[in-house]
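Students often ask why we bother predicting the structure of a whole assembly rather than each chain alone. The short answer is interfaces. A chain on its own may look different once its partners are present, and contacts between molecules only exist in the joint model. In this exercise we take two input lines together and write out one structure for the complete complex. Read the inputs first and try to guess which parts will touch.
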Amino acid sequence: MTAGATVTGGIGRSSTSPPAGAWAEREGVFGALATVDHKRVGRRFIVTAFGFFACAGILAALMRLQLAFPEQTLLSADKYNQIFTTHGTAMMFLFAVPMGQAVAIYLVPLMIGARNIAFPRMVAYAYWVYLIGGVMLFVALILDIGPDAGWFSYTPLAGPQYGIGKRSDFWAQLITFTELSGLMVAVALITTILKFRAPGMSLDRIPLFVWAMLGTNFMIVFGMPAVMVSSTALIMDRLVGTHFFNPAAGGDSLLWQHLFWFFGHPEVYFIFMPGLGVVSAIVAAFSRRPVFAYPAMVLSLNATAFRAFGLWVHHMFATSIPELGKSFFTAASMVIAIPTAIQIFCWIATIATGRIVLRTPMLYILGFFFILVLGGLTGVMLASVPLDLQIHDTYFVVAHLHYVLIGGMVFPIFGGFFYWFPKFAGRMLDEALGKVTFWLMFVGFNVTFFPMHVLGLAGMPRRVYTYPADMGWGPLNLTATIGAAVLAAGVALFVFNVVRSLLRGEQAPDDPWQADTLEWATSSPPGPGNFAEPPVVGSREPLWSPHGIVGRVRGLSVEVPEVLVTTAIDARPDSRNAMPGPSLMPPIAAVLTSVMLISSIFTPWAVVWGTIPVVIALTIWFWPTKRETEQHIKLEKPP
Amino acid sequence: MTALPQLAGNPMQDALNATGIQAAHVENLWWLMFWVCTAVFVAVMVALLASVARARRAEQRDETRVSAQGERRLTRWVAGALAVSAVLLGVLFFASIFTDRALAQLPLEDALHIEVTGYQWWWEAAYDDPTPSNVFTTANELHIPVGRPVMMTLRASDVIHSLWIPNLAGKKDLIPGRTNTLALRADAPGVYRAQCAEFCGWQHANMALFVVAESPADFARWLDAQRKPAAEPTTDAMRHGRDVFEKGTCAMCHAIKGTSANAARAPDLTHVASRRSLGAGVIPNTAEHRAAWVGNAQAIKPGTNMPPQPLPAADFDALLAYLGSLQ
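Now the answer. The structure tokens for the assembled complex follow.
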């Protein structure tokens, strides 16, 4: 296929409505199930991830109630262990990582001037797999067979001998679901970013948000296989009696920890890097200038992505690893503070020389600075082997990880919701309510988690369902519980704001914030196909620079959904590519895959028999239809 | 940030109240880290607030601020801040390394050697001695002499546990299939509470260990007492109690030195009445609590491997009388 599309002159930030024909999708139930539009899939991914966030948040509230006073009996030990395991698992695997990808599924194609995401059916399939896997975890918890060995499922506690019933199998299989979904979305996003960019958007012109997503998804591609190997080995130990982690049979219980943390530490950065991308987008938009030192920012993001793979042992300082080896990981763990420091200094420099507009999204970013810097500094403390041995596995670490993850991801993402909601929904969120929401969340968060630093130093270990009254940990735990209530009120107010806005919010203009990136150059919300004529980009800030949009892409088919594929580095037009249309096969294949995966918890034979329907579904999915083939042949032009 | 006030008379469990040299090294490192990090945090927040204030003024006056000269000046500021950060990180790194060295240099001549084994959810301690008959086993309570180093060999019998005595030293994991060591020294007498720090299942929260640091003379007395076999019963009730123990289910898991009970799946009860707690710190070791524990430990520590003992009243009372005599 040749580059039949042409790039024409003509300036404009015009947002003429996109072409209906080729990209339009059916309404109704069929349309909803069969959709391959990245905006619809992205939106439901975001809503689902938020739903899991809320469910896991309710579990956190239960834990805080249990710990508000010493020796409470609200939850039994067994219930508490299931709840904290499900809370951690859901927050890490069902909220934090998928939410970053979900936002990227929606925004990345818009930001790079593409009409859809690459492999849209695979992304739709990934969504359904993710949804079913997540629901499975919570159903298991409700049925009192939820996993109870922690979100890290250390062997042998999660192994066949000490992990009773099917609890840890649900955990291991949830990992299969989320890694399947996560890897497929990562491949789609990487391909989209490298091949679907608007002509002229060379690598040194892509928004920092997109750089963050590129780094994140490459990390997912390299990090997820480690947990795939470990969770598969665990489930084989449990189901078919292999002995990967059984020291009595030549296995090794520490092997699990190495494999798990080789994934688990980069995972912190899968979660955190999308947050950095959001911060860059909002800081630029609300400081009215591009982020200072773009090359340094890009290099820092990439340095973080590489370095993140060299720190995993700092989760294992208390095991039997030799001292000299541990020192290297101390150094590595401290050095990773540098690229983050570079970005923080550059953002502050951007604000200092900008013209700040203190709207709700920017407030969340200022909150992010406070929380993340504090969490980063306690991270430097935890990198030190001797100090870590005192505070590892105590409430100090609980405080640290929530400062890093809520500061580094939740606050930027909430800022991002306020920032991009007009684009997602076509309506504005209420600004006054938004400011109240921010302050409730900010104060509630700090009141909840700051006292935990002190609790950890005062000797309170993590993952305890109760503590004796005479330890003196009661008052600070009560403070934390009160803070959690305030934080929950903030999240509830946000949900109220969203519902209110959807019902009777102010209509959003195309570009309510006068921001710099391409998603604001189309209607709110964007129609099918995103752009009437995809832009040709002439600058890093296409909507700010006078030569930002230097032309429009013309000549793509109006009969079938077709995208312009560009070269990876310079984004020169390369070829036209017809995209697959809506199909029911992704949800059908996802249901069949889920049946196979869930049944295999109960019998290994499910892998054998369950694979057959999956293969049939995939065959039907990929079988070319006569109509599609004829259309594609018609579109081909000889060079 | 200060430590929580400790109620008088309660065992201590506090990383910032070091009473041993190892924990003291770490406490010093903590305060260095704390002050350096606090200074950095304050500096970054001041810079952020000053920037916001500046940018608000600019917005109000509608100034355009980006200029080539300004950007060069910014570069210098950012590079300077980065250099300071790198230097401070270097300081903290070397402080950490030197603390590690200091920890490794604890002199271990004439160290007391204790083998600690973690079980779901209790601790076993075997006091080593060159004379085999002097070796004895106890549970959930260690006694150590003040001023003399202690070398602990750490093993796990089932899942991973972690021994953490915050007042004396940092934690170390007990891992099935591996052997770890932990060296420490108590420099002040006292009762220090330790707790399992690695999630180990159902009753992870109730897996405490008391470390009693006492003068060498007191320690020697304790050691002598512990080395002896169990006291001979002095009354008929106690003798009957011993029979119940030896012939009933108790002896299937527990050992009492000097009797035929020598199983090793549960705490050694040779001197059980001399300990301060039952169920690894879950209740105090009084006559009433002992009766409640033996009667139905599941009501006190759900999930523990100690089954309820529905004995006839006469047997039950005799058993408790015997256990109460095991000083």
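Check your guess against this: Chain B has a mean pLDDT of 93.
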